[in-house]
UniProtKB/TrEMBL annotation:
Signal sequence segment: none
InterPro entries membership: UbiD, UbiD-like_C, UbiD-like_N, UbiD_Rift_dom
3-octaprenyl-4-hydroxybenzoate carboxy-lyase-like Rift-related domain location: 124-311
3-octaprenyl-4-hydroxybenzoate carboxy-lyase-like C-terminal domain residues: 317-440
Protein name: UbiD family decarboxylase
Pfam families per record: UbiD, UbiD_C, UbiD_N
Residue ranges of domain 3-octaprenyl-4-hydroxybenzoate carboxy-lyase-like N-terminal in the record: 11-83
Transmembrane regions: none
Domain of life: Archaea
Gene Ontology molecular function: any one: carboxy-lyase activity
Gene3D superfamilies reported for this sequence: UbiD C-terminal domain-like (3.40.1670.10)
Membership in a protein family: Belongs to the UbiD family.
Organism from which the protein derives: Sulfuracidifex metallicus DSM 6482 = JCM 9184
CC annotations in GO: cytoplasm
Length: 480
């Protein structure tokens, strides 16, 4: 079942006793963000603030992605890998890239089930200004109020492909805001393509309050070239209902608020500081300015926010959802891949653990180089490759592999002067830094110069008898 909009999702959660209404008066200045963080840390259900100080006509929603179970609620399944597996089953051939694969399906099936469909909007034109929205100040030393889960929509000037991304947006005044899109993000790339065509005012739209499956897609590292509306349709199992604005950009027809405008690529302003998902304040830097030209709103709108900081918060659980959904896509590019783990405390782009079926010497290093070539995974600072029999989600098993199968000089690879997460302050010259890959697999003779030692294994009959005796002991001493 796909939710038509944010309101239908909230109704569903309320009927299932999974929505926490907070009617105490709360402020957008630090209070909502603090309550949200504590709720996420405690794995509480989504929060609905109904009494926001200074905003009597608004309700604020947060903590939608409260744990991996929150992802299950949003996508109405706990088989996240199955979403992409079912989609990929539609292909009879194995094109070179995922984009080729999607194009081949479009040629055959026209992707009718997943493509966006036109619908009359639920919102109407309004006099809403950027400062009229209950945006948050998240941390005490933040530069001001920010949109933290609003979605920025751009359209590639050549392909017409739409991109929906979650960038933090610092509100300056009624009609101006600063959009924090880093150089390698799809919004920034689209802007550069407009500039190459001599267009300095890039049309964009900022929306808020949609079906959370669309919000999840906007926060996901969908491969460049693939329209995010299409991918949102895959996540939902049906196409997104959209309406086209005067600037040619399609927006979800049931969005709560819509800000239409443009970014002037020649006009940048100092943004930040902002307490981000690494648990530190991001220093000030220069980013483009958004100018509001027209606004739309539903009656008595809802505003969707999040609060970031030290993990695991909502972004960590979004990352775990992305990990599961994108595993089949990643296996398509790296066929020896068995499983992957992007640990919650690895802040999504910090640490990745991957298991492979190893058939030949040097394969682990080959796999890590392939992974560093894949979208958001290219930003991983640490990659650990283990054998297929290692459970990548059991860190003790991973540590055992590191301790018994790694020679630091032979099995550790450091790559210098490559693209890293721009928010990673530990790098000397962001966004350029270094990465480390660790081969924690068993080694072939060609890799060590000698045969790998035989691993200990119990005698089967003795092991069976021992297990029977241990079971008897456990039944006699259940509390041991």
């Amino acid at each position: 079942m796909a939710f038509a909009d944010l309101r239908e999702y909230l109704s569903y959660m309320n009927k299932n006793n999974k929505l926490i209404e907070i009617d105490s008066e709360v402020s957008t200045d630090l209070e909502i963000a603090e309550i949200t963080r504590r709720a996420t840390y405690n794995r509480l259900y989504p929060l609905l603030f109904t009494n926001v100080k200074g905003y009597p006509n608004w309700k604020v929603v947060s903590n939608i992605f409260y744990s991996i179970k929150g992802i299950y609620d949003v996508l109405q399944t706990n088989d996240l890998e199955g979403i992409s597996k079912r989609f990929l089953e539609g292909f009879s051939e194995m094109p070179v890239t995922i984009i080729d694969k999607v194009r081949s399906l479009r040629d055959v099936l026209k992707l009718g089930k997943f493509t966006p469909r036109a619908k009359k909007p639920s919102f109407k034109e309004s006099n809403l200004k950027l400062t009229d929205v209950p945006s948050l100040k998240t941390w005490p030393k933040d530069a001001g109020r920010f949109f933290t889960f609003s979605i920025t929509i751009t359209k590639d000037p050549e392909s017409g492909v739409h991109n929906l991304s979650v960038y933090r947006i610092q509100v300056l005044d009624e009609e101006r805001a600063i959009i924090h899109w880093q150089a390698f993000k799809r919004g920034s790339i689209a802007a550069m393509r407009y500039k190459e065509k001599g267009i300095t005012k890039v049309p964009i739209v900022i929306i808020n309050g949609v079906d959370p499956a669309i919000a999840f897609t906007a926060a996901s590292p969908v491969p460049v070239g693939l329209d995010k509306y299409l991918f949102a349709g895959i996540m939902r199992g049906e196409g997104v209902e959209v309406t086209e604005l005067d600037n040619g950009i399609m927006v979800p027809a049931n969005a709560e608020t819509v800000f239409e405008g443009y970014v002037d690529v020649n006009e940048v302003r100092e943004e930040g500081p902002f307490g981000d998902h690494l648990g530190y304040y991001t220093p000030k830097d220069y980013f483009p300015t958004f100018h509001l030209t027209k606004s739309f709103s539903r009656d008595n709108p809802y505003f969707h926010v999040t609060s970031v900081g030290r993990p695991p918060l909502e972004d960590a659980w979004i990352g775990k959802g992305v990990e599961r959904i994108f595993l089949p896509f990643t296996k398509m590019i790296v066929p020896e891949l068995v499983d992957m783990n992007l640990p919650e405390y690895g802040v999504f782009t910090g640490v990745g653990i991957f298991s492979i079926k190893k058939y030949y010497p040097g394969q682990a290093k080959r796999a890590m180089m392939a992974i560093w070539g894949l979208g958001q995974l290219s930003l991983l600072k640490f990659i650990i490759i283990v054998d297929a029999d290692v459970n990548v989600h059991d860190l003790n098993e991973v540590v055992f592999a590191l301790s018994t199968r790694v020679d630091p000089q032979r099995d550790v690879m450091i790559v210098n002067s490559v693209l890293t997460d721009s928010l990673d302050f530990s790098t000397p010259s962001p966004p350029l830094g270094s990465k480390i890959g660790i081969d924690a697999t068993r080694k072939f003779k060609e890799e060590t110069g000698r045969e790998w030692p035989e691993e200990v294994a119990s005698d089967p009959s003795v092991a069976k008898k021992a297990e029977e005796i241990i079971s008897q002991i456990k039944s006699r001493y259940p509390h041991v």
